[in-house]
Amino acid sequence: MAPALAAGNTIVLKPSKYAPVSTLELMELVSEAGFPPGVINAVTGSGEKTGSALVKHKHVKKVVFTGGTEMGKSIARTAANNLAAVALELGGKSPNIIFSDADLDSAVNGIIAGIFAACGQTCIAGSRVFIQKDIFDEVMSRLLARTEQIRMGDPLKPETEYGPIANKEQYEKVREYVEIAKNEGARLVYGGKRPGSPELKDGLFFEPTVFVATNEMRIAQEEVFGPVLCVIPFADEEEVVRMANDTEFGLAAGIWTKDLGRAHRVAKKLDAGTVWINTYRSVSFASPFGGYKGSGYGRENSLEAIREFTQTKSVWVDLSGKMGDPFVVR
Known about the structure:
CATH architecture of the largest domain: 3-Layer(aba) Sandwich
Mean pLDDT: 96
Strand content: 15-25%
Structural class: alpha/beta
Shape: globular
Distance between the termini: 52 Å
Strand order of the largest sheet: 7-8-9-6-5-10-11
Radius of gyration: 24 Å
Number of domains: 2
CATH superfamily of the largest domain: Aldehyde Dehydrogenase, Chain A, domain 2
Largest sheet: 7 strands, mixed
Order of helices and strands: HEHEHEHEEHEHHEEHEHEHEEH
Low-confidence stretches: none
């Protein structure tokens, strides 16, 4: 909203059908802040009806969408009928790369933050972790020990670290991908089911889940949008860059190493709109955010975001006071 408003645009917000209330509360604040009527608007409903009507409307000149890749493609096709500009922030299957010289305590925290924060329901989730072979067993041991300590529970309680899946549809998708991974031969090393504790068994809770997999498996190629981690060993830089880029997505990536030369060398080669070095999920309004390949196009945050909501106009003025004869060569 902020860059669109800063560039002088009016806005129509359409929240997810699963989570409209916060947007409606925001509209109360918009009114209190004194925005003129019609500058910031909100409509609720399904994507099939309400969202589609917005994208098709002839007066909508820019569509900004956050969501799945297939829906993003559909929106881009529909918006093209009105030549409306589109910015898409779509899915991801982001690689988190752990080199043998990394600070392993920090790296394990980065793995946990990357995939189990928000129960894995983030577009930038570090859902593929590549671990160099000579430290593979040690990192796995530390990772599983930390995963066991995650406190699941009511997301409204301050002590809770890990809440439920957002809705039943998504919950079933996570369960389905766990079965797909097992059938493909991925090795389940933690989780993979509903927790057994009485206070959690009736909610949409799903244990943090860790597979050892290979990069060509569906569980390592397709976005789950849930707490499912694929761990993949690698030998050297060349191999890990090839595997990290071998996906339709390109939203984010993490690199863990004490060798900054290596860090910058690998970062340059990765197909990702954001690359974190020795951290994960860091954000700033000053840093552009967006994806490559199937993760979309356009940028949020920074001056680039304001440019997303502007059009360039050229104005020429002749100060000589006289327009020459166009057919006279001088």
